[in-house]
């Protein structure tokens, strides 16, 4: 996609522009704060220059992370600008209480630097490699985002805007949390001083506006986040199943033995889990970082002159160090207790998917199980699969009980810490009741932020398992995609000749054993051919090579330009849904009119189905083997291929029914060349030429043309 490199270059240039804007704004803040009462602290414009340098260096990192950095830059500009205006008295008194503290601007710089730093961590790069392609999507956003998509021209740009909006709402909520903390201080001070006017002011003119803003931004965050997750899941799911199906990747994965277990679950369940966890953890982590820096500054100021208990030693910011030490110990212990969860969660996804697959497969082969009276064997298999699920669930439960028991105990113990350290200072009248409450709440916020790893450990363990499953699935698809693309390989070309020509063909098994060799073989248009040979001689594999899906071997298959080849296997695939879609497959439903569908159903001997085109059913189970093969022939009559390869496609029919089908094909497709694999002698009557694949002394099968002189084999 040529537009993607242009997007990459554009994103890098945009980051450079933001860096220049931040540097210029920082210079302006520095100049405006000179000699001004209540001036902006010097560290704010200085940190702005640091932010500009970080943004310049970050122009080539993950786009997902750049969104966060861009929003932190915007947060810095808005907070620094608001405080500068407030220092000049340009902010109305009613709004001044809502202006975030100036140190929040520098906190934004710290967050941007942290994001830039984590961008080099391998696991973070793995996550962003999975996430970034969506934000580079050039698909029109109008279809999925309506008027919002039209503003940004592509879904990727709309997605960037939505993540930016989510970050902005979270950032505002952190700022509101800080204002609530300051409100607690002022409210309790008013209560301690029995100042009724100050009390009611805090209720009506501070708390109520803060509450209204809090509700608005909570609802806004929920709405945008939900819409974004839906859109991202739809795009990523379509991307995965398209890649899985394109170029027969799903088939190659199975043939090559690279089939990641339960790809259906990886596409449906793991994609949803990855998106949910990525957004939840990234936004929560961002909010916790903002909370940590902001409340650390408050807590440091409150405990700046505190002494270590039982001594006269002054420890600046004592409560901050207590919170850090307490959380660090808790984090280490949580990791030691919960580390096995990563492996257990990975295994749980696998065991659950295997059990569901066993049930689905039993439904598919229900008739065969019933005929063989296989219920006892199936129950034993299901018990074994379900036992793995339950055993692993119990192991997870045991591990989580340990984690949760430790976490609950550790968190409850932290409640008393700020009062233990601040209580004596309150009784000595060195702090007010409001400051005591403010300090307790700030300690709780800092401890909660530092304990994020403890609280989210089980989520992080499941997230790591999900990432591993998606990465292994992508790796398996990547390995399968290159099979048959690197020489030597079987190359399918178009040619002007009026024949399907095989040249220097060597067909191998996945482990390298050769099974078929053909130096030259022409399947001329209009000449029906019957291919015989003993079982295991490679007939079906040869047909798959002719159809262009067998990746192992070398040589060339020339197909006349503009001509089509269709292969019908012995066991046809019939998708679920209505009968019209099942007959139209592989064309989409609606590709053929109902009159044509009814005509081919009658031609292949399925007149009972002509009035059931709208019936939804599991037709793969509803129809017998012979009826399924008749339906497959009906598809061919609709598709009208130039070459029709029948790999024992009528083996489930009796000879009379088979003759009727071949006559129907001849009548409906007079210009189609039939090439059949079959063992019945009666098939010879419908073919002008017979080719036997005969295994030679070296075990490799070579064609012997029984209608003419033997084909040279070299």
Automatic annotation (TrEMBL):
PROSITE patterns: ABC_TM1F, ABC_TRANSPORTER_1, ABC_TRANSPORTER_2, PIPLC_X_DOMAIN
Residue ranges occupied by any ABC transporter domain in the UniProt entry: 500-713
Residue ranges of domain ABC transmembrane type-1 in the record: 164-462
Membrane topology qualifier: Multi-pass membrane protein
SMART domains: AAA (SM00382)
Spans traversing the lipid bilayer: 14-33, 39-58, 70-91, 103-124, 158-178, 198-224, 285-302, 314-337, 408-428
Keyword annotations from UniProtKB, A to Z: ATP-binding, Membrane, Nucleotide-binding, Transmembrane, Transmembrane helix, Transport
Alphabetical list of InterPro entries matching this protein: AAA+_ATPase, ABC1_TM_dom, ABC1_TM_sf, ABC_transporter-like_ATP-bd, ABC_transporter-like_CS, ABC_transporter_sub-D, P-loop_NTPase
Subcellular location: Cell membrane
PANTHER family xref list: ATP-BINDING CASSETTE, SUB-FAMILY D MEMBER (PTHR11384), LYSOSOMAL COBALAMIN TRANSPORTER ABCD4 (PTHR11384:SF59)
Protein family (similarity comment): Belongs to the ABC transporter superfamily.
Protein name, UniProt field: ABC-type uncharacterized transport system, permease and ATPase components
Natural source organism: Chelatococcus sambhunathii
């Amino acid at each position: 996609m040529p537009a993607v490199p242009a997007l990459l270059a554009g994103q890098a240039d945009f980051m450079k522009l933001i860096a220049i804007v931040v540097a210029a704004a920082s210079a302006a803040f520095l100049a405006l704060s000179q000699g001004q009462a209540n001036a902006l602290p010097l560290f704010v414009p200085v940190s702005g220059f640091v932010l500009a340098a970080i943004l310049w260096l970050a122009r080539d990192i993950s786009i997902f992370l750049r969104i966060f950095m861009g929003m932190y830059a915007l947060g810095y500009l808005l907070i620094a600008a608001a405080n500068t205006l407030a220092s000049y008295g340009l902010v109305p008194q009613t709004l001044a209480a809502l202006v975030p503290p100036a140190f929040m601007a520098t906190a934004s710089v710290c967050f941007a630097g942290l994001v830039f730093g984590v961008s080099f961590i391998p696991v973070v790069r793995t996550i962003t490699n999975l996430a970034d392609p969506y934000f580079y999507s050039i698909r029109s956003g109008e279809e999925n985002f309506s008027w919002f998509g039209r503003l940004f021209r592509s879904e990727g740009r709309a997605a960037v805007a939505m993540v930016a909006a989510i970050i902005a709402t979270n950032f505002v909520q952190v700022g509101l949390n800080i204002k609530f903390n300051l409100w607690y201080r002022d409210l309790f001070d008013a209560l301690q001083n029995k100042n009724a006017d100050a009390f009611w002011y805090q209720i009506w003119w501070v708390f109520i506006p803060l509450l209204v803003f809090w509700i608005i931004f909570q609802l806004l965050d929920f709405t945008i986040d939900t819409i974004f997750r839906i859109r991202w899941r739809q795009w990523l799911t379509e991307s995965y199943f398209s890649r899985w199906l394109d170029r027969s990747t799903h088939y190659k994965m199975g043939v090559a033995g690279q089939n990641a277990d339960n790809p259906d679950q990886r596409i449906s369940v793991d994609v949803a889990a990855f998106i949910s966890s990525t957004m939840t953890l990234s936004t929560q982590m961002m909010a916790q970082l903002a909370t940590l820096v902001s409340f650390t500054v408050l807590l440091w100021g409150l405990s700046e002159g505190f002494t270590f208990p039982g001594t006269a030693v002054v420890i600046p910011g004592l409560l901050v160090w207590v919170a850090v030490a307490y959380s660090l110990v808790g984090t280490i212990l949580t990791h030691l207790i919960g580390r096995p969860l990563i492996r257990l969660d990975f295994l749980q996804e696998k065991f659950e998917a295997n059990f569901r697959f066993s049930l689905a497969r039993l439904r598919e082969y229900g008739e065969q199980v019933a005929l063989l009276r296989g219920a006892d064997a199936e129950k034993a298999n299901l018990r074994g699969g379900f036992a793995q699920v339950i055993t692993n669930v119990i192991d997870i439960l045991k591990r989580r009980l340990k984690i949760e028991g430790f976490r609950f105990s550790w968190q409850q113990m932290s409640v008393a810490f700020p009062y233990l350290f601040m209580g004596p200072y309150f009784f000595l009248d060195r702090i007010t009741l409001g400051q005591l409450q403010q300090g307790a709440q700030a300690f709780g916020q800092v401890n909660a932020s530092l304990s994020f790893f403890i609280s989210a450990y089980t989520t992080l363990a499941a997230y790591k398992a999900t990432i591993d499953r998606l990465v292994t699935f992508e790796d398996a698809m990547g390995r399968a995609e290159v099979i048959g693309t690197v020489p030597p390989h079987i190359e399918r070309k178009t040619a002007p000749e009026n024949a399907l020509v095989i040249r220097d063909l060597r067909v191998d098994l996945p482990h390298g054993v050769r099974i078929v060799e053909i130096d030259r073989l022409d399947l001329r248009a209009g000449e029906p051919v019957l291919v015989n040979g003993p079982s295991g001689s490679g007939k079906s594999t040869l047909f798959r090579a002719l159809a262009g899906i067998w990746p192992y071997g070398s040589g060339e298959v020339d197909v006349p330009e503009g001509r089509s080849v269709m292969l019908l296997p012995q066991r046809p695939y019939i998708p679920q849904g209505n009968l019209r879609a099942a007959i139209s497959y592989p064309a989409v439903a609606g590709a053929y009119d109902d009159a044509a569908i009814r005509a081919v159903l009658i031609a292949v001997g399925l007149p009972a189905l002509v009035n059931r085109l709208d019936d939804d059913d599991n037709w793969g189970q509803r129809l017998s083997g012979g009826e399924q093969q008749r339906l497959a022939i009906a598809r061919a009559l609709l598709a009208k291929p130039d070459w029709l390869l029948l790999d024992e496609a009528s083996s489930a029919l009796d000879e009379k029914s088979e003759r009727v089908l071949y006559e129907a094909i001849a009548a409906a497709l007079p210009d189609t060349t039939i090439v059949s694999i079959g063992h019945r002698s009666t098939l010879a009557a419908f073919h002008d030429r017979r080719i036997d694949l005969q295994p030679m002394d070296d075990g490799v099968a070579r064609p012997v043309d029984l209608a003419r002189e033997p084909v040279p084999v070299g």
